[in-house]
Amino acid sequence: MPEDSSKSTPVVLILGLGASGEAAARLLLHQGRSVMVVDAGTGPALEKKARIWQTQGVPVLLGVRNLPEAQIEFVVVSPGIPETDPWVRELRERGVSVISELELGWRACKSRILAVTGSNGKSTLVKLSCESLQAAGLTAVAGGNYGTPLSGLACMDPAPAWVVVEVSSFQLEAVEHFVPDAGILLNINPNHLDRHGTMERYTDMKARLFGSMDKRHVAVIPEVVSDRVMRALPAGCRVATFGLSDAASFYYSEGCICGTGLTKPVSVKGTIFDNEIMGVTAAACVAALAGSGVDPQAVGAAAMTFQGLPHRMQKVAEIQGVSFINDSKATNLAAMSAGVQMARGPVRLIAGGLLKEKDLDSVKKILVNRVRGVYIIGKYSDVMAAAWRNELACTVCADLKEAVNRAWREAQGGEVVLLSPGCASFDQFKSFEDRGNQFSEIVRVIQKGE
Questions:
Q1: Higher confidence at residue 197 or residue 62?
Q2: Which secondary structure element, helix H or strand E, spans residue 258, and what is its range?
Q3: For 340-376, what is each residue's pLDDT tens digit?
Q4: Cα–Cα distances in angstroms (integers) from residue 218 to residues 176, 234, 241, 297, 418, in the given order
Q5: pTM here?
Q6: Cβ pair 340, 433 in contact under 8 A
Q7: Is the peptide bond before 160 cis (omega within 30 degrees of 0)?
Q8: First to last CA, the chain
Q9: Please, which residues have CB within 8 angstroms of residue 252's CB and are 6 or more apart in sequence?
Q10: Which domains are seen in the chain, by residue range?
């Protein structure tokens, strides 16, 4: 009987056959490495993908409970698998290197990298950064959590001048040497604590973005940030801050980004960045470009033609003077607060779902000042109503359709019916996209019958 080649030839083991795992497999095959994939899951979709990979000579093991007895060169782990997973622990106890797909892609990428992390607003900043680099006359593509995984972008030929990647705390758990040319921490608010356990641990994961930087790199951080982040910044790296006060390196003020070394302010007047919430996003982008030797005025040019992403303060309709805004991507309270502040008019807020946080008082002041009624749906509707009903008009609704229709009946001209849930969607919907699409469809029905 021939010897089992998996026991004699070192393989790169991929944990998880999702988008990241498949991108990693493609890159590794491109590099001429031997690859094996394992996934604890089963089902028709996974089985179909497994058959495709097996035709390319990649063994795929589904429904796995124990790691294969292969000689392993190193391991690429899916962002969905935490560092506390028994597989990851076992591999590290064996002395095997376990890295994220982000790390793998970075090692192979020939482009300069601008990496964006944070709790809210990352995708918008990635899009603005990519379009700003393009406006400066540079080739640039966006990816990471925003779209194509970095391992996929690393295979591009010719390589673009820049790759802009959205980076999650899940991916940063398993980086070893990952270092972007410019890294932006947009914000840190309570999020993913079900995985990371504490706010301190979550902050530490985000700060890994900067861990390998030196004087060649620029770290872009908010003007007010925790000591944990400051301690994580290597002594040699360059640091730029952004915010709303002139104490920051770059700051938003009255429709412009002002700051250190700018020959003139960068105008974002009349764009979606012309407010204090989105203005700091533009300021972060200016800081990253300026710190990378790219003309920061390109940010203003990109802002003028910028089209917002779906499910992020997306205007669905205006009916009899009432605006309907889909902000379904607001899956935590800080994002909901930002949505309420950005709404142009008094708000009828639709909120609720799977609550990620316990401190509901943190947003109460903003809600009291801007919201005329809250229409609450989902698993934690009673908890949210109990926290707010003494100071806000709260209505618990059975589902999204009831919430939208009640808000519409009670709204007056000049008001905004805003879906900004502040919660995850999976109690009643397939995803935040599904939730936003259902909201838009309900509004279209109202519009037809007005």
A1: 62
A2: strand 256-259
A3: 999 999 999 999 999 988 899 999 999 999 999 999 9
A4: 19, 11, 10, 18, 37
A5: 0.91
A6: no
A7: no
A8: 76
A9: 243, 244, 268, 273, 276, 279, 280, 282, 283
A10: 9-96 (3.40.50.720), 103-304 (3.40.1190.10), 314-449 (3.90.190.20)
